[in-house]
């Protein structure tokens, strides 16, 4: 964790906070990859889950996301019974739909509304799992937020160089050209 903070020019004193407990986890494993004792402690202490961890593997099929992403989210959802659960999804879940704007409601489970790669399909599958289990698990509160591109820290400007906007800007800098877009690009300042 400290190496990641240093690499991204972030304040490492935040790591020393008594409020922070860093645990290595694997959401696709029993007990989320934690010891049974660690699992029980956080099960009793945690009140809200914000799940935004997702591995983006451009061009990979849905099967590449089954274990780590889909099963992992399902396990985290089971852990979250009687807690607030917030899932950070992606506009990729419905990017090929005929809607003018990204819908705010429940999406139909149709592969045709998403991207044809595993990332968008996995987001749509996870959204469907969450909405179908909401009543069954009697979850306190569930929200799904569909976002596009998000940057990181407002002071350091750290942005994963493997994401599409930094890659596009890097290529533009090397080639001296910018692509043209037929669609409007909305930016949050």
UniProtKB/TrEMBL annotation:
The protein, known as: Male sterility protein
Superkingdom of origin organism: Eukaryota
SUPFAM superfamilies: NAD(P)-binding Rossmann-fold domains
Pfam families, A to Z: NAD_binding_4
Domain Thioester reductase (TE), first and last residues per copy: 4-188
Membrane-spanning parts: none
């Amino acid at each position: 964790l400290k190496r990641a903070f240093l690499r991204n020019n972030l304040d490492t004193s935040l790591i020393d906070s008594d409020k922070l407990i860093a645990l290595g986890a694997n959401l696709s494993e029993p007990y989320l990859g934690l010891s049974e004792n660690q699992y029980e402690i956080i099960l009793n202490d945690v009140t809200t889950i914000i799940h935004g961890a997702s591995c983006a593997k451009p061009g990979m099929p849905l099967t590449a996301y089954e274990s780590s992403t889909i099963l992992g989210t399902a396990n985290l959802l089971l852990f979250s019974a009687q807690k607030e659960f917030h899932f950070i999804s992606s506009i990729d879940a419905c990017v090929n739909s005929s809607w003018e704007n990204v819908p705010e409601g429940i999406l139909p489970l149709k592969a045709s509304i998403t991207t044809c790669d595993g990332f968008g399909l996995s987001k749509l599958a996870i959204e469907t799992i969450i909405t179908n289990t909401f009543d069954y698990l009697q979850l306190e509160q569930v929200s799904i937020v569909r976002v596009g591109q998000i940057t990181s820290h407002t002071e350091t400007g750290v942005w994963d160089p493997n994401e599409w906007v930094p890659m596009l800007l890097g290529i533009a800098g090397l080639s001296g050209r910018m692509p043209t877009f037929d669609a409007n690009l909305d930016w949050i300042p």
